[in-house]
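Our working data are protein records whose layout never changes between entries. Instead of coordinates, the fold is spelled out as a row of discrete tokens. Here is such a record, shown just as it appears in the course material:
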Amino acid sequence: MKKLNETEEKERLAEYGASLMILVIIWIGLLIFTHGLIWSFAKFLLTVVLIYGIRDFFVDYTLLVTRYKKVDKFKK
């Protein structure tokens, strides 16, 4: 095995430490996000967004359909 000088060894340890910190942050984030009240709050927000999205879709669709019906009435 090749012996590293002191600078290369410090850089390697810094890279390993940074990788380890990133993994720990991701794991803690997943634990917090998928556990308890926070997860319930996130599901509630997503449900509200879905309901408003469906409502807006139907409103837009209804306006589009009524606009075409009015145009057809004027053409006759």
User: Anything to note?
Assistant: Helices lie at 6-33, 36-75. The chain has two helices and no strands. The mean pLDDT is 80. Residues 36-75 form the longest helix (40 residues).
